[in-house]
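Title: Prediction job returns without error message
Component: structure pipeline
Severity: low
Priority: P3
Assignee: unassigned

Description:
Job completed but the reporter wants confirmation the result is attached to the right record. Sequence as submitted:
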Amino acid sequence: MLLLWTLLADADYNLIFNAVSKGVGITLYVCLFAYALALAVGLVFGLARVARTRVLYEVASFYVEIIRGIPMLVILFYIAFVGAPGLADLIVWIGQQLQTLGLHEVGRPIAQFSIRQLSFTSRAILALVIGYSAFIAEIFRAGIESVEQGQMEAALSLGMRRGQAMRYVILPQAVRRVLPPLGNDFIAMLKDSALVSVLGVQDITQLGRLYATSTFRFFETYNVVAFLYLVMTIGLSLLVRYWEKRYPANERNGPAR
């Protein structure tokens, strides 16, 4: 509250706030887009982690264990400067193969793809998706395994196939149980999104760093940066806490309706 009053009353702080707050939009865009994709990828790998097929289980386990063991900053650098050029080369190769098959109209624009068409914002989003999908996969796995085995047996006894039982009986219950951990993961991604500033993405941290180095007002600038992140993370934490109170554990663990 004291910092908020300072932002409103102090002209210098107000100027810094107006400059740095322009990065709120890109920060939220990166987080929301990356988290939506990470949820989808994490769900796929989470299902593979509980699959009976040994190949799916081993591939998913390999992915999860490798990604969880690498720091997020290293993943960002690796995707931005190793993975993205490799992806661009793959796209060009696909375009060339399409041309050799006679599909010139389709293959020509693909073969002309350039690494410059992959912005650093896109690379940062891809890195966050890869980094967080591994953690989300484990959350989904734990949620699925927390559902009583009798639920699956009851669904199978009613004539459902295993895939139908997973879709209509197990997953609805598992998703309700893991919503609070997923909310906490989103908050963690929001904080880790500050790392994308090392790639030059114009988020809150990057704009704050640029303003501080140009004006030498490091103390005031990083106070504003910290304040903006605190407002967002505390607001999300309150939403997660409200969800946990609104839907307590015993209700989340109840049968799907």
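Comment from assignee: result matches the submitted record. Confidence is low (pLDDT under 50) at residues 252-257.
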